[in-house]
Structures are given as structure tokens and as C-alpha cells.
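Lecture 7 notes: from sequence to structure.
We start with the chain below.
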Amino acid sequence: MNTLTQYGRMAEKHWREHCPQLVRDLEAKGQLHTMLLEAEEKTKDEMIELTQMFTKQGLTPQQAHDRAWEMVRENYLILPPENPTAGTG
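Predicted C-alpha cells for the same chain:
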């Protein structure tokens, strides 16, 4: 079994806190680790592409990385919370 990187660990922490039903469903199917690996792989791939693109546009490597991170992190790692308004009305 592959070990999660910082991206996968970040996703797992966030998912467990903000998407507990998703985590329960994935664990019940035995797919949580696989989905975390997939999320981190997609994040890494898009980060590389965007960082290279922004660097070619004249940003410094750090600026390019930061901008790419802002764009990609919510695609796969920092998912929207489940039922954000549940129990508030």
C-alpha cells in the first residue's frame, strides 16, 4: 500500500472533519486510501502543469507555486463541507 504524502494527509484530515459521510462511505467500500492517493496524484499533476505555465508567464517559481496551489487545492483536497447549513434552521 502506498504511503500518503502531505497532500493525501491534508485531504484525509480535512475530509474526516468536514466530509464525514464521504469518509464513512469510502471506508465501508474499502476505497478511502485509494481515493486519497488519487486526490494527491491529481493535485500534484495539476500543480506541476500550472506552476510551469505561470513560470513561463513571468512569475517567480514561488509565485507560480502559490498561485497554482490556490487554484488546485479545492479541486481534490479541500472539498466543500457536507451539509453546511444542516441544523442551522
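Points to note: The helical segments are 6-18, 20-28, 32-56, 61-76. Residues 46 and 72 are 7 Å apart (CA to CA).
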